[in-house]
C-alpha cells in the first residue's frame, strides 16, 4: 500500500507510536485511527490480509499502512508493526485492537509508566477497578486463561488476554513473537520473564459492540493450545516435570499396593504389578526429559545472552 501522501515524521521527532493489527475491520478502523492520532505521534496499521477496505480506510484516516498479502495471524502482525516502529526510534509504543473496544483516551495513562521510566511493559487490565459491560462467558474465559498464563509463565497479571498494552524501547526492540494466533498476549508474559522486563498494570475500560467476529470457544481453545506450546518451550521442567513426577509417584503408590496385596494373600497381583512398573518407567522418562530440556535451555540462554 503506497503511503506517499502521508508525511512520515523524522525519526528524532517521533516520541510515541501506536500499532494496530487489523483484519477485515473496515467498519471501525477509520474512527479508531482518528481517535488514536490525537494521543500519539504516529499510527501504524498492519493490515493482516484483509479482503475488505480496511487498508484504504486506515490510510485515508492518516495511518501508515503495512499490508500482509495473506492472513498471518496477530503475532505476525505485531512483529511487522514492531519492525516498522523501530525505524522511527520512539520512546514508547502502544498496541491496541482495531475493533473499537479500547478507548483511545486511555492511551496517555497506559504510556505514562513507560515514558516515566517505571515500566517496560504496561498491561491494560479490564479487572482493576474499572467496571465494563463484559459478557459473562468472556469473563470466565479471560479469568481461566489468565490463571493458566500466570502459572505457566511465572508472571502474575490480572488480565493476561488484553490487547491494550504499552512497551518501552527496551521491550519493543528485543521482543520477537513466535506465536501466530491469539496466544501472543500470553507469550508476552513468558517473554517478560525471560527478558527481565518490568511490568505495570493500568486499569482500562472496554466496549463490546455487536456480535463477536470469532467463535469465543474456538478462540479460547486456540489460546489454550498456544499456551501449552509456550509452557513446553519456555518452561520444559514444568511442562514435563510435573506430570512425570505425578506419574512416578502414582506408580510407586500402586507398587506399594501390590506389596500389600502380596503380604495379605501371598499372591502376586501381576496386572497391578505391571501397571506399577509401567507408570514408574514412563514417569521417570518424562521427568528426566523435563530436567534435560530445562538444563539445555539454560545453557543455550547463557550462550546467547549478551556479555556485559
Summarize the structure.
By secondary structure, the protein is of the alpha/beta class. 50% of the residues lie in helices and 12% in strands. Strand 1 (16-22), helix 1 (29-36) and strand 2 (42-48) form a beta-alpha-beta unit.
Give descriptors for this structure.
alpha/beta; Spore Coat Polysaccharide Biosynthesis Protein SpsA, Chain A; 2 domains; 12% strand
How is the secondary structure organized here?
Layout: E1 16-22, H1 29-36, E2 42-48, H2 54-60, E3 64-68, H3 74-86, E4 92-95, H4 107-115, E5 121-125, H5 136-153, E6 165-168, H6 169-172, H7 184-195, E7 199-203, H8 216-234, H9 236-265, H10 270-304
Parallel strand pairs: 1-2, 1-4, 2-3, 5-7
Antiparallel strand pairs: 4-6, 5-6
Helix pairs in contact: 5-7, 5-8, 7-8, 8-9, 9-10
Based on secondary structure, the structural category is alpha/beta
Shape: elongated
Number of domains: 2
Strands side by side in the biggest sheet:
3-2-1-4-6-5-7
Uncertain runs are: 1-11
CATH fold naming of the largest domain: Spore Coat Polysaccharide Biosynthesis Protein SpsA, Chain A
Largest sheet: 7 strands, mixed
Total helices: the number is 10
- Rg, Cα atoms, Å: 24 Å
Q: Give the CATH level 1 class of the largest domain.
A: Alpha Beta
Terminal Cα span: 42 Å
- The CATH homologous superfamily of the largest domain is termed Spore Coat Polysaccharide Biosynthesis Protein SpsA, Chain A
Helix proportion: 40-55%
Query: Taking all residues together, what is the mean pLDDT?
Result: 86
Corresponding CATH architecture of the largest domain: Alpha-Beta Complex
Strand elements, count: 7
Amino acid at each position: 500500500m503506497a503511503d506517499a501522501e502521508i508525511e512520515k515524521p523524522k525519526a528524532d521527532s517521533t516520541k510515541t507510536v501506536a500499532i494496530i493489527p487489523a483484519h477485515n475491520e473496515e467498519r471501525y478502523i477509520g474512527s479508531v485511527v482518528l481517535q488514536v492520532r490525537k494521543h500519539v505521534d504516529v499510527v501504524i496499521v498492519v493490515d493482516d490480509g484483509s479482503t475488505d477496505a480496511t487498508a484504504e480506510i486506515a490510510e485515508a484516516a492518516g495511518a501508515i499502512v503495512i499490508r500482509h498479502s495473506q492472513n498471518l495471524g496477530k503475532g505476525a502482525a505485531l512483529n511487522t508493526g514492531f519492525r516498522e516502529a523501530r525505524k522511527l526510534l520512539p520512546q514508547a509504543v502502544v498496541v491496541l485492537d482495531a475493533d473499537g473496544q479500547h478507548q483511545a483516551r486511555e492511551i496517555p495513562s497506559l504510556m505514562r509508566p513507560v515514558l516515566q521510566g517505571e515500566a517496560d511493559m504496561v498491561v491494560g487490565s479490564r479487572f482493576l477497578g474499572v467496571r465494563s459491560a463484559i459478557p459473562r462467558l468472556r469473563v470466565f474465559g479471560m479469568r481461566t486463561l489468565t490463571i493458566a498464563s500466570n502459572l505457566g509463565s511465572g508472571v502474575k497479571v490480572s488480565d493476561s488476554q488484553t490487547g491494550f498494552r504499552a512497551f518501552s524501547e527496551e521491550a519493543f526492540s528485543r521482543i520477537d513473537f513466535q506465536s501466530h494466533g491469539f496466544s501472543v498476549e500470553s507469550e508476552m508474559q513468558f517473554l517478560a520473564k525471560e527478558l527481565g522486563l518490568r511490568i505495570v498494570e493500568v486499569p482500562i475500560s472496554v466496549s463490546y459492540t455487536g456480535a463477536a467476529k470469532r467463535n469465543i470457544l474456538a478462540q479460547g481453545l486456540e489460546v489454550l493450545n498456544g499456551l501449552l506450546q509456550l509452557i513446553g518451550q519456555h518452561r520444559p521442567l514444568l511442562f514435563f516435570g510435573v506430570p512425570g513426577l505425578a506419574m512416578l509417584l502414582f506408580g510407586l503408590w500402586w507398587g506399594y499396593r501390590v506389596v500389600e496385596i502380596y503380604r495379605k494373600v501371598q499372591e502376586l497381583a501381576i496386572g497391578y504389578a505391571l501397571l506399577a512398573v509401567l507408570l514408574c518407567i514412563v514417569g521417570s522418562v518424562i521427568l528426566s526429559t523435563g530436567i534435560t530440556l530445562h538444563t539445555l535451555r539454560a545453557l543455550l540462554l547463557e550462550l546467547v545472552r549478551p556479555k556485559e
